[in-house]
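Example (one chain per record):
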Amino acid sequence: MTSTASIRASRTGWRTLFLKEDWWAIWIGLGLLAAAILLFDAGASMKWIAVTPKKWHTIDQLLFQLQDNAGRYALLFGLWAGVLGIAVHALGIDLRHFLPAFLFIYGVSLLIFFLGEWDRAHDYNLEPPLVALALGLVIANFGKLPAWIESGLRVEFYIKTGIVLLGATLPFTLILWAGPVAITQATIVSLATFGTIFWAGKKLGLDRRLAATLGAGGAVCGVSASIAIAGAVGAKKEHAPISISLVVFWAIAMIFALPLAARSLGLPTGVAGAWIGTSEFADAAGLAAAQAYGGYAGNVPGVTGNPEAAVRAFTLMKVIGRDVWIGIWALVLSVVATTRWEQTGIQGRAGIGEIWRRFPKFVIGFLLASLAVTAIAQSHSFADYKNIVEPNLVAPLRNLRTWAFIFCFFSIGLTTRLSAFTRAGAKPFYAFTLGVAVNVTLGYVLSTRVFSGFWTALGQ
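Predicted structure:
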């Protein structure tokens, strides 16, 4: 009996590797990386299919690009539709709905990408992530989407896949080098933000389970943390949506506010990326802001540093520094809820398995991708890496990452209803907003004063 039960449990455990978005993001990201490595070892490259628009000035130049690369863009759609289609089918989504929806998302993303490559785009802040988000918001709130579009709006799936691919562009040696700084800064901000929101929530008379959910949403990884902590503390059904609404509201506001503030202050790209990483409330929103600011380097007077440094610093701060706290917060708060708070509905005792259950699995894919590219880079000189490895292996993966991010940002806009922000009520808004003030201020001080030398050097 025990043996049979163990076998069944084992089989169930293996099946979860193909029934969760996090795992499919890993399989897709690492699968694309493996294909890129095989082509690279054979003396070829994935860059032909990982096509992106180039700079253009006139409409004739734009149309020529579209005509000249039409076949490449069609094959790229086939690649994305194929790998994503396999995953969503395994997740129980009808391909008859997903594929037309994804074709719409891909087509609009292509137009947005081309707009971002206009040589005057930086003058008007027309960065692809911001344009994708703004356009999605307009369509969602002032138009009516057909129901079949919804199956293609896989926000979390796109961003998780993009983050795994991001690992391939971020050597692990840099993560090890930045680890102590990123972890220290993330820890300070996370503890301060959670403490502020939880304290304010309690002072305002909020249910402590709601206060904990709001605190984690502001301190760690907005949407994911809100869901994870609400489950860990046995929150009421409406608590997670309230937290998510406030996270999305402030995340969207910060997408526009942080790059503009950093630009007005003339912050280096690495410093701005770190500030965004400690002050944003969602991975997708933060990546949009960081990517937008990175685009200012070399295009906006006064903004110095490497364009990729903003994304790298953000990733080290948010994905590595803050997101990995989700499992820890879930474990700690589930223990507190079960041992000190009133009955929360949680069954059983919290254990070490809670960390693994709540841990964002796609971070594993990020680290594995980083390790793989690091191993390849170590067998080449720096000059060969810049002239051979980066253009033929890393750059195509960076292009695919950018596509995944644009899919995500457009989907965020299409799934965001501004009216939802009014349903949360005033007290949760006040508590969370106080946390925002602490988060942004403390993040600014740590990024531009305490650790400014480190983040500035990151962008050199």
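Caption: DSSP finds 20 helices and no strands in the chain.
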